[in-house]
Amino acid sequence: MVGRGSRSNKKNMLIIIDTNAWIAGVRQKVDIFRELNRLFGEYELLVSSFICEELIKVAKKTKKGKDKQAAKIALDLIKIRKLKITETNSNQDIDSNIIDLIKNLRRQNKEIVLVTNDKDLQARAKYIGAKIIAWKRGKILDTI
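The structure corresponding to this sequence follows.
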């Protein structure tokens, strides 16, 4: 998905939204795509298969609750927006998968923005050169 806005014009910018950020964004009623357009202008949203798999797990296996419903809505947003899902194979935990994905993309000289509220993942991703943003109260908390 390519977004358009006025803040930047970087065709090589890739944005990855972590599972918890999809869920938090939906729960906080963030207009995820509008916020990304506002911040970055032109970008590509990368939806990894392992993040989709984790959203499916939350949607199916979590007992009734807000996270379960938010995961379902996030999956619907991915489907409705017809976002391309990038197939990635790994047997690692989800955070390590994200870090490996970022490392591979950085080798291709891509500018990576990771949207996550996970403090440990934020630190690991920032260390390898990704920019970090997080949701709070319906909008971007901050670039970290």
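The beta strands are 2-3, 9-17, 42-48, 85-86, 111-115, 131-136, 139-143.
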